[in-house]
Amino acid sequence: MSQASLSSLRAETLISGEEFRAAAALYTRVFGYERPEFSLNPNLLSALARNGGSAVGVRTADDELIGFAYGFAGRDALGNDFHYSQAAVVDAAHQGAGVGRMLKERQREVALGWGHRTMRWTFDPVLSRNAHFNFSSLRAEGVGFVPDYYGRPGTDRVVVEWDLTRDDDPFSDPFDDLRRAEPPALGRGDWGRAVYGPISRRDGSVGEAAWLAVPAQAPAVSDDEEERASHDLLRANVRQSLATLIGDGAVLVSCVRVDQATAVYLAVERPSRPDSGKEPSV
Known about the structure:
Elements: H1 3-7, E1 10-13, H2 17-31, H3 42-50, E2 54-59, E3 65-75, E4 81-90, H4 99-113, E5 118-123, H5 128-137, E6 141-146, E7 157-163, H6 176-179, E8 194-200, E9 206-215, H7 225-247, E10 250-257, E11 262-269
Parallel strand pairs: 4-5
Antiparallel strand pairs: 1-2, 2-3, 3-4, 5-7, 6-7, 8-9, 9-11, 10-11
Helix pairs in contact: 2-3
């Protein structure tokens, strides 16, 4: 998609039953869901949008809905309030063209309108492209890790937290310098393994960091037993590493490619939260 066509897109809050039905249809089509329990109820979207939640979309100049995101008000066990973004989907023909960023910015406006200062959502840690968008583009952080988030195998998730009040000034981001750090030259043989070492800060201090290598491309679904076993082992190693890192108090702040095959997460020590005295919980 060209920049000119991108500029013709518009992000908006969905408000009508027809819009909610179109959003539910897009959601089902993008994810390829066939089982009815995974479908999205338009009535639920309407209720969420009216009661502390969000339902936003991106349309083309021809009024075609090509992106959709929705969420709701959340509170964790420690009493931290946030806006929880349950899902964001973009039509396959328009992926990688900035639609996801438009959805998140519109959802941010809605969340701020409800009085939320942070937003949370989850993603599959093996999908490094999503991680790069979350940490490098939006400047959010990975603050939690939950194995089998949806109660079935293969649904391990990193919990992301995004400060909605943070502006474009790099100095308002406590991890700005770390997000720019050069990762070590890890490769396929390092996938799923955390590599520890020092990391220098802008102010001259030196902290502890861990780098975690994962595939740069999402592993393809395969019927081959050997490939499935390799994929299962990768997920098990990533699960163990993330559970240890985040369990020890680290946050994920970046995910960048080091070559065509490998991307690398950066995990660093979680700063204190003087505003509430409470750390995020999941």
